[in-house]
TrEMBL record:
Belongs to the sigma-70 factor family. ECF subfamily. GO terms for molecular function: DNA binding; sigma factor activity. This is ECF subfamily RNA polymerase sigma-24 subunit. Residues 3-67 form the RNA polymerase sigma-70 region domain. It comes from Paeniglutamicibacter gangotriensis Lz1y. GO terms for biological process: DNA-templated transcription initiation. Keywords: DNA-binding, Sigma factor, Transcription, Transcription regulation. InterPro entries: RNA_pol_sigma-70-like, RNA_pol_sigma70_r2, RNA_pol_sigma_r2, RNA_pol_sigma_r3/r4-like, WH-like_DNA-bd_sf. PANTHER family: RNA POLYMERASE ECF-TYPE SIGMA FACTO, RNA POLYMERASE SIGMA FACTOR HI_1459-RELATED.
Amino acid sequence: MVVRRHGTAVLRMCTALLGPGSNAQDAWSETFLAALRAYPALAPGANLEAWLITIARRKAIDLLRANHPVPVAELSEPVAFPADLGQLELIESLASLSELQRKVIGYHYLLGFPYADIPAFLGGNPASLRRAASDGIKTLRSQHREAEEES
């Protein structure tokens, strides 16, 4: 029942941090295994979805840390990006936003959380988080317009 109800949100969090594929699926599985072990200690009335998303985020970060690149003296061959990378401008625009703006936009637009639930993850209050997302979206739109005018 818990997996059926919250599995999609957990997978979205894992995919947002790890990208689509086996790493996201592994983090998803690890999330529910860890939740099963920790469930008896969960406080009654706790927000189950927020709790699972927090576990998923930590499991994804653990996977990222475990699979981090090892520094080498020199690269064997130059790294080439695919020509059809596409949304590189959007990625650069996202990097220009504050960390809070990126997180709120991710929780609201990518994971589908209402602003009222996001303070459980990030702190603050719904009004301030809504404003951060609004400012971030405004910045992204203005940068997109500027890029279109230049091309």
